[in-house]
Amino acid sequence: MILPQNFDSAQESGHLGCPGCGEALGLRLVLDAIGSNAIMVVPACCASYVDGIWPSSAARIPILHVAMGTTAAAAAGIRAALEVKGLNNAHVLAWAGGSGAFDSGLHAISSTAERNEDILYICYNNESYVDMDIHYFAGGSNRRGSGAHADRRRQQPQKNIVEIMAAHHIPYCATACVAYPDDLANKVKKALSIPGFKFMHLLSPCPTHWEIPSELSIELTRAAVQTRIFPLYEVEDGTKYAINVLPETFAPVSRFLSRQGRFANLSAETIRQVQNRVESQWRQLQRRVELSHGGVSGQAKAKPEKQTTP
Amino acid sequence: MKTKTVSTGSKMLLSGSQAAAHAVMAARAEVITTYPIVPQSLIAEQLLEFCSKGELHARYVKVESAHSALSTLIGASATGARTFTATSSQGLALMQEMLHWAAGDRLPIVIANVNRALGAPWSIWVDHNDSLSQRDTGWIQFYVSSCQEVFDTILQAYRLGEIVQLPVMVNLDGFYLSHTIEPTILPEPAEVDAFLPPYQTEWRLDPQKPRSIGNLTSPDYYLEFRYKIQEAMDAAKAVANDVYQKFESHFGRRYGSLDCYELEDAKTIFITYATMAQTVKHAVREMRREGKKVGLIRIRMFRPFPAEDLRQLVRSNCRYIVLDRNVSFGAGGIFGQEIRAALHSQALDSSIVNITLGLGGRDVAPAMIKEIAAKYSEGEAFAGDHYWEGVRL
Questions:
Q1: Which end of chain B has the lower number of beta carbons within 10 A, N or C?
Q2: How many contacts (CB atoms, under 8 Å) link A and B?
Q3: Neighbouring C-alpha atoms within 13 Å toward the C-beta of B351
Q4: pLDDT tens digits, residue range B277-333?
């Protein structure tokens, strides 16, 4: 699939994203699905400078830039103001990097989700702490440490933000990635059709941090899905699970890991452990899908991969 | 504050907290956030009652922290809504990051801060280190001393903040004011509407006219953003005087950034603020009966600091005793520092005595004020320094 050029996109050209930036592409895909009747909130993250330095902005929708952990709270305030002013048809998009969602922003997300505020919160996760010079964080990857960063490399697997959000019983949460743009657009449109708090976890490649050539960013993001390291699924009302993209064959995790400089330190043993963890998590996900459908496998709902692969 | 004529309306017995909530309702606030903290919670409870009864048509958002209480208002105010929250002490300290942010975004948010000492050790009683620690955040600050003044100042705060595009903090003493009941005049809604028109701003988040607020700003522009905050603060002094005049013409009650009592022939003049000023006023009245030439300057507006107004009041043959219910460790009382700086050109330094007292809710009784007057009115030994009163060691 070749993405059509969209000269009416709410994300204009001239942004400051690097070549192969998943955030810039992801935002364009999301805004194409949302349209221009929206207000966006952005905390400290790549998007706060990829959008442009004052007085420039690449977005054709208004953006409120806010402090690190406050995205969901500020978005709730925007929604509250729109409600009292009777402007309910405008969408409120919270667009936050991993650090503002997984760590410092989590209490505000939790509270806003609990109140079921009518917001679409998308965490685009490049598995970095890019705005803090690529440091440790809970949504990050097992990065190869070097120099001053060596003692900061992660030893733990990434926490499961979608499960955390599903546990809030919000009407909709989902994973998505820029390598499956149809799936991403469908999920954004579905989320916007549902009132209440919606959460999406978007895998967003970062050639700089992943230590990959920029032309590989889509291919490796697709590999994250094909290896089931980053399965594409959705959860409605915290209980109804569906896998949206089912790989025809499951690729070994090394297809995702081995071409990234950030994982060059991984031993064969670690890669085997990652493979085991992926298998285990996949079984858990399948089980949840089965439970959602009265014990019958929900995989029938998943779309065959070849129809959605770009 | 002098009451000239009483406009129509009703007189009710209200606590300072209730007066604050009534003012927020009278101002027709549109988005209210709350997170409970003693002794602020009565304001939140009263507002919730107004909203749930349908008397106040606002979105009432119960958030999970004081930090989010202000963050949510930043989103709401940036979307053009009139906003309010109340907090206290640790809550205000947690908000500090967003206090800067609200001022930087030039959002006329109004918060009522019920002054309470900061931990550790825990204290729920009044002093003013919570709000005075926020003096450099770009917020206009008022310190009030009666329930009527709580009500009136919140209305003035919206009017002033929305003109100069700065957030306003109205500070009232925990318990001494928040939980003290006084007769309070509540004007008719139409009268308040005439004084305070709905909040309208071009600078808001609007999909029809998209603009970004708070972008990353290079060294080529950041300085100018900050300069404009200072410019707005300077302008706020004159605008505040206009607001007081307009307020008086609507409601008959006169306010200034400073409030004076018995200054004419005074040899010793107390300068203080908040409810402590009411105690000092009472003590001054009694001392006057005893023939002592004492007076009082009460400072209502702390930011912007009314330095010009103060300079016009002072004279060289007087002793000034600045009472601070706060301390800047390593420097002295915070009002004391501000007053010394404001009066620097008057060469009064040796006439100013600065005293810290009453921290953590320690009672400051009229007898103590009289003792202070007796102890510090005469002699050079005390001048130009900072002292503590009431310390029991």
A1: C
A2: 156
A3: 18
A4: 999 999 999 999 999 999 999 999 999 999 999 999 999 889 999 999 999 999 999
Question: Within a domain: residue A183?
Answer: yes
What is the tally of structural domains in chain A? 1
- Answer whether residue A13 is part of any domain: no
Q: Identify the H or E element spanning B115.
A: strand B110-115
Rounded (10°) CA dihedral A206, A210, A213, A214: -10
CATH number at residue A138: 3.40.50.970
Helices and strands (DSSP H and E) totals, chain A: 12, 9
Q: Are B261 and B284 in contact (CB under 8 A)?
A: yes
Phi first, then psi, for residue A129 (nearest 5°) are: -130, 60
Least confident among A104-108, A128-132, A146-150, A186-190: A146-150
- Flag whether pLDDT at A145 surpasses 80: no
pLDDT digits over B327-376, tens only?
999 999 999 999 999 999 888 888 999 999 999 999 999 999 999 999 99
Contact check, Cβ <8 Å, B77/A77: yes
Residues of B in contact with A105 (CB under 8 A): none
Question: How many angstroms away from the CA of B180 is the closest CA of chain A?
Answer: 32
* Angstrom distance (rounded) from CA A217 to CA A141: 16
B39: closest CA of chain A, how far (Å): 23
Q: How large is the average pLDDT for residues A222-228?
A: 96
Strands (E), chain A: 38-42, 63-65, 91-97, 119-125, 172-177, 197-203, 232-236, 240-246, 303-304
Q: What is the mean pLDDT of chain A?
A: 87
Q: Is B112:B42 a contact under the CB 8 Å cutoff?
A: no
Q: Give A48→chain B minimum CA distance, Å.
A: 7
ipTM reported for the complex, 2 dp: 0.95
Query: Chain B closest CA to A112's CA: distance in Å?
Result: 8
Give contacts of B102 with chain A, Cβ < 8 Å.
Answer: none
Domain that holds residue A216: 22-308
Average pLDDT over chain B, rounded to an integer: 95
Q: How many residues does chain A have?
A: 310
Q: B79 — contact with chain A (CB < 8 Å)? A: yes
pLDDT of res. A158: 81
B214 closest CB neighbour out of A66, A79, A90: A66
- Decide if A12 is inside a domain: no
CB spacing of A73 vs B71 below 8 angstroms: yes
Tokens representing B97 are 């990051």
Mean pLDDT of A232-247: 97
Interface of A with B (CB under 8 A): 36-39, 41, 48-49, 51-57, 59-67, 69-70, 73-85, 90, 107-108, 110-111, 115
Domains in chain B with CATH codes:
2-254 (3.40.50.970), 260-388 (3.40.50.920)
Element (H, E) at A109: helix A106-114
Q: Which residues contact B392 (CB under 8 A, 6 or more apart)?
A: none
B41-78: burial string, b at 16+ Cβ within 10 Å, e else? bbbbebbbebbeeeebebbbbebbbbbbbbbbbbbbbb
